[in-house]
Amino acid sequence: MSNHTMTSRERFLSTLRGEPVDRLFRYEHGPWPTTRQRWMTEGLPEDAGFGAWFDMDPLIRISINSGYTASPYQPKFTETTIEETPQHRIYVDADGITQKILREESDTSMPEFLRFPVADRADWRAILPRLNPDDAAARITDVDRWASLCADPDVPSMLPICGAFGHPRNLFGDEGLSYLIYDDPALLEEILDNWRDLYVALLRELTRRVRVDALLIWEDMCYKNGPLISPVQFRRFMSPRYRQVIEAARRCGVQGIIVDTDGDCLSMLPVFMDDGADMVMPFEVQAGMDVVQIRKAHPTLGIMGGIDKRALACDRAAIRAEVARVVPPMMDLGRYVPTLDHTVPPNVSLNQFQYYLECVRSYERH
Q1: What is the pLDDT of residue 366?
Q2: How many Å apart are CA 339 and CA 308, to the nearest integer?
Q3: Which residues of the chain have pLDDT under 50?
């Protein structure tokens, strides 16, 4: 541990680099909207900001049209309702995906994807004008505001983007993308070249005015039994463009690269590291992710997450035991940000979440 009190930015960047820190960086993914509604009935003020209320380390998430779980269309698709009943809604979303969602707890249940915007080359040609790298400036809104916020030397900044798997998956869906790899690999190469060119242009344009400390790449490419694409195929198609985007980001002053994927990502960790990622999150325990063992296998990989969110729905002893299982050994091994392994579900009370934070932070005094 470092002997002097660090700023949030120093703490964040030192964690990514594997350097000593004065204490662990405080970050959480936050609650689902339905969870937050519950917490407001239990004492959380309606206007409470999550980070400030729970005393997290400040971190600026740059909110422009850079994509994340959505693709960076410019312009986006117009959301259009196709069918509504008391139980569900069928609509075309801003990504051009036709989906069916349940009325109840729509934020915590998966939608049913009925149609994706691209099925063939003709569909790709039709959608391509929305993904023009020359539109980089148009994707950046409120540039003066972001330049001012990100100029704070004490607070780190992070830009989310949609990944090299996440983006074509948004275009074709899991099944369509799986077929594309074999049926028309040249089209996938063309799509990924466009992905690379778009994000290189966006990074160059944004960092002319705005300091970007970290890139957060959304993939969500794994489920409980492993990745939705083989590491071999990812290395073949995605890795060359990943490396080019990451190299461009670092030339633009970006110091940290973080990849976000759920599920069992064990076989993908060496790939992400080879491509230039510094950290991966959130390491879902229910998918078999044990961050203590992963840290031993990959001592230079930054890890964010790995604390089982399900424990927070149990009693205090279970919460305390889960935090003790993860935090002390990870503190000793370094490059770690302690967080739950996903967004806080609605079966967790405000009191339970606050007790969890107390348990994590009790180790700051050790």
Answers
A1: 46
A2: 9
A3: 366
| Residue whose C-alpha is closest to residue 227's, from 264, 252, 198, 197 | 264
Q: How many CB atoms lie within 10 A of CB 163?
A: 26
Taking each helix axis as running N to C, give the angle between helix 350-362 and helix 316-333, from 0 to 180 degrees, rounded to the nearest 10: 40
Strands 60-61 vs 80-84: parallel, antiparallel or unpaired: unpaired
The neighbouring-strand residues paired with 337 are 304
Exposure string of 200-225, with b = 16+ CB inside 10 Å and e = fewer, is bbbbebbbeebbbbbbbbbbbbbeee
Contact in structure between 228 and 222 (CB atoms under 8 Å): yes
Report all structural domains of the chain as residue ranges with CATH numbers, in order of start.
Answer: 8-72+118-365 (3.20.20.210), 78-116 (no CATH)
Radius of gyration of the chain (CA): 21
Collapsed DSSP state (helix, strand, coil) of residue 345: coil
Q: Taking the model in full, what pTM does it have?
A: 0.95
